[in-house]
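Researcher: Please translate sequence to structure tokens.
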Amino acid sequence: MASGDDARWMRLALSLGARGLGRVWPNPAVGCVIVKAGRVLGRGWTRDGGRPHAETVALAQAGQGARGATAYVSLEPCNHHGQTPPCAQALIDAGVARVVVALTDPDPRVAGGGLARLRAAGIEVVTDVCTAEARVAHAGFLTRVTQGRPMLTLKLATSLDGRIATATGESRWITGPDARHHVHAMRARHDAVLVGAGTARADDPSLTVRGFGTVRQPVRVVVSRRLDLPVDSALMRSARAVPVWLCHGPDAPDAARAIWDAAGGVRLEVAAGFGGQLDLAAVMQALGAAGLTRVFCEGGGTLAAGLLACDLVDEMAVMSAGIALGAEGTPAVGAMGIAALDEAPRFALRDVHRLGGDVISLWGHVAGRRDPAP
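Model: Translation complete:
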């Protein structure tokens, strides 16, 4: 049975786990707290690359004090031998008396098995504490396990009238320095940054995290059916230092493939969809199969429209600057062929706040969004 303090300690475990976002894929970013008599004896979160796991870190810190204590874990402890022993067994061996879990792990290798092992050892198990918060915290991992693709956040930095560039293509900078700094923080919390070929050609972006010291850099992913990208780009020059993945079609020229192979890029060939363009659902499945759990898409408008049309966007981060560019400017989202409002993707507002002179609004995907609004 849950106690009055369980939610308090679980929120601490969730906050610890968040430190691993963007750093632990393909594993979930789990947090763990060991508590006895109201005192925290150990705390941990899954470390870079997915190991050691949060429970292992917290138990090592608690030492012998873990015997008879309560362990708060933001996701069901694993029950299988991978590159590390099962965390459920580690909790048993440490002698904890009680384990409180926010969420059952849907991974078929776990899926209740960790909880069953704990109960079989005589440990009291409490589940579903702070479940809603845990679903948000583990959204990327859960999406990959249940849908085979990573969670996708679409970022748009626009004028007040929804433009991302002037008619001549000028876009630096629509938003201010605070908003741009925030974008780097968001990149750091994702496993990968995704752009389309048009953005890669027009902006020559590096797509790295800057301004936060030494951090684990996200994978840079470019969607380019024919790999028609500049050969002297920032991405190509840095491909051996920070991973660059190229999602391309079966018709990509052999010469372009060889150039990227020599530069250290990783190619993911995916099927073509309607009209010969890449099947974006297949792209996301390929990224999920490669282990990614959280992807941050930064454009451009054609890719954004395609992802929205395919119902692949889980959340949107819209940064709005106090400037108007007019109808001749480049729209943030390309054509989607929507004829009626009930066909449009719908999102629910989660949060809004200022970033210097700009505003960021965060929107979550609405399930059943294609149904007519009441």
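Researcher: Any highlights?
Model: The chain is about 30% helix and 20% strand.
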